[in-house]
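ok trying this again, last paste got cut off
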Amino acid sequence: MRGQSTGFMNGALSKDARIKLDSEGYSKLHLQVLERDRWRCQFCGSMQHLQVHHLKFRSQSGGDEEQNLITLCAECHAATHSKRYPIVHVK
């Protein structure tokens, strides 16, 4: 996701900076991602038990930014973390 414009904050951050939002900001972003993904799991299409998943994990310095988030249902989210489903993660 480096090199892509992320709006007004783009010029203020180094390319390795991580965005970590407070709970109110993350809640707004969470809703924005769900709406962007049309309230559907981006792997199986389910509209039940939706969660927002970080493509590049926070533990690997992944940020709270729209292009690093994807909507998954709880089952696909769990499968992704157990490596049962081949959702590509950014390294």
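PB: full thing came through this time. Residues 23-36 form the longest helix (14 residues).
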